[in-house]
């Protein structure tokens, strides 16, 4: 059985992009993989997090994952900082990765923008920690959204350089598993930007805890263009917002984009947005209400994470100890 590592930052409430691009695939991977699901709080503090919010969001994320169908007993679910192997291996990888490699990472460029000098060193070396997350377990498969492909390539570069520098065959190849549909859900305010927890506008995303009225309002306010929907997929070229909404509907309704346009081509956005709201609410509402129920029991959530951390630590410890021995640390 292949071992999977997946991480999500407890930086906010999980949104529809996280769900369609990541969480729902995690749920299906459980059937035939050994899965390690991680709330990556070390990654989260690469940008400022209010400590109280970080604690709250870690529980919120946990609740959404459980409500979405993650199995904390058959698989492992924990928060990253609770297993020291991540930080130890990341430091070693900081010394393996080259500055030139990190300079090419588009996520850093996107997040830091023009104000590069004022960002944390942690944000810059984030991909090295991500490589450590995966390799601390020798996981071979990493389900990610399209935005993370480049980081997986970097992780493979680090693995190869480590093997080469130390003359070992210790780390194998990691495979990015990008789901075929809805790999990238775009912002409701700007069809050229991905939906993101860190977007300042709450209107830009649909949270997995939104109630029906909030979903309806956000979809009504979603940016569109004045043209009616096209009758075939080619008609979506140059219309990023329309493409995003049609793509979302297709994934949620289990249809192809062309099938959606066969039904809705020629419609204005008014009726289409109503149909989209309906499929969104029917998917999100059960998850949102189960999340609320779980959040009322923080003791349970904390126990799930503690138990997961113990099991994750047991798995990572021998691997990272071996790396430390290879590097020459006196044990
Ligand atoms: P942040 O803005 O804080 O980076 P995020 O919205 O990008 O938050 P992450 O926690 O970084 O969320 O990512 C968790 C998972 O969700 C990753 O696998 C990532 O590829 C996926 N993901 C994030 N945003 C999207 C999106 N808009 N569409 C599809 N998948 C996404
Ligand atoms: Mg992200």
From TrEMBL:
UniProt main location, coarse: cytoplasm
- Where is the motif 'HIGH' region annotated in this sequence? 10-18
**What is the main EC category here?**
ligase
Q: Which Pfam families match?
A: tRNA-synt_1b (PF00579)
Do the record's keywords include Aminoacyl-tRNA synthetase?
yes
* GO CC, alphabetical: cytosol
Transmembrane ranges? Answer: none
Q: Where in the cell is it found?
A: Cytoplasm
Residues in coiled coil: none
EC number(s) of the enzyme?
A: 6.1.1.2
GO biological process per UniProt = tryptophanyl-tRNA aminoacylation
The role this protein plays is: Catalyzes the attachment of tryptophan to tRNA(Trp).
Do you know which PANTHER family this protein is assigned to?
TRYPTOPHAN--TRNA LIGASE, MITOCHONDRIAL (PTHR43766)
Subunit composition and interactions: Homodimer.
- This chain belongs to the protein called Tryptophan--tRNA ligase
Q: Which organism is it from?
A: Acetobacter oeni
